[in-house]
Amino acid sequence: MEVAVRSGVETVIERLQRRCASDPQVLPLSGGLPADETFPVQALAHALSEIGPSDLQYEWPEGRTELRRWIAARLHARGAEVAPENVLITNGAQQAIDIALSLCSGAGDAIAVPKACYPAGLELFRSRDVTPVHELLAATAIYTMPLIANPTGLPLSGEERAALLASSLPIIEDDAYAELRFDRLTSAPLLAAAPDRVFHVGTLSKTLCPGLRVGWLVVPPGERDNARRAKQRSDLQANTLTQAIVEKYLARESFEDRLDTLASFYAERCEALTDALRRKLPWLRFRNPAGGFAVWVETEEPGDDTEFLATAARHGVSVDPGGTFRSGANDEPLAFRLSFSSLPPSAMGDAVNRLADALFDYQKQGQKARRASGVAA
Same structural domain for residues 46 and 6? Predict the structure, then answer.
């Protein structure tokens, strides 16, 4: 019954989200999408113009050699000794998480996750009959985003990192936003400290563009053959053409310069959002993100994601409802993720004003419902 109820709520929420996304009058504080204007369209078009016949051929399951070497070199620069042979190119980070999960967990197992967690990860775990939990002692594996988490935009504390590494559990380390810290101080991944049990997930979806679907999985050396077989069973290989485009793009362009530009770009948008929230809604609880695309907001209001999302849509603003980021039943106080990535700073004040109107409207609806319930009782 719990699964059916959750599924039904998510279906309604998805319909509301799609409706908001298709309405140009709704200001998007949802989605967690990279800004369209950051995509290097001309540079990628030039890379595509250099494609030859071999770039259109089948590839090995692990992916193209030069791209795997580039990934290994970047991780080496961050303190992780990675052999290109242990890198597997995937169709985005989601497939990398899926393969890692298949190698370190099975049906009936439990995986430790943060209290606010990447929703597609939670859905994947449940679909594999792996139960998300918050206690390490109850888990058989760990999923974490240690450098920049989704939805909070915050890194793990030193104590939290130490606790994960002190366990003997396999760790799925999702590094999707790690290179989007506003201060550009990207620290060593957990992979550097525990290469024998960390499955390291990366992607270019946030730093280059998601449409190419280029991600990767770095596996412990002992899992290399198992990972390649899992990839081959899944789809034979990742897209050869997009891998080749990325290789040619990286050969001509400075990726570090691009990351510097993105850090400044998203930091400005983040500051515009958090400043507007503090001016208009100072009672909301949130922490300034260290990077990424979003702010995680908590309230004291009773949680009803569907009602609040519908109310926000009526006021012309969209949010990502908090229940989708939670592993338990949706009975906690109302929370939501606000994405600053897709909205220019000049529009942030208007979006927060609409959000404030939606919250006040939601509060009045709740008070009216509670009074009616009291009278009925």
Answer: no
Q: How far is residue 188 CA from its own chain's centroid?
A: 19
Q: Which of 233, 252, 271 is the last residue of a domain?
A: 252
d(CA 325, CA 294): 13
Q: What is the pLDDT of residues 264-315, one digit of tens each?
A: 999 999 999 999 999 999 999 999 999 999 999 999 998 899 999 999 999 9
**Concatenated DSSP letters of 271-311:** HHHHHHHHHH-TTSB----SBSSEEEEE-SSPP-HHHHHHH
Span 105-137, pLDDT tens digits: 999 999 999 999 999 999 999 999 999 999 999
C-alpha to C-alpha distance for 333 and 29, rounded to whole angstroms: 20
CA distance 26 to 138: 42
Residue of 372, 361, 371 whose CA lies nearest to 314: 361
Interatomic CA distance for residues 347 and 351, integer angstroms: 6
* 144 in Cβ contact with 164 (< 8 Å): yes
The residue type found at 336 is F
Containing structural domain, residue 34: 2-38+257-376
CB 181 within 8 A of CB 59: no
Question: How many structural domains are present in the chain?
Answer: 2
What is the rounded distance in angstroms from the CA atom of residue 350 to the CA atom of residue 321?
20
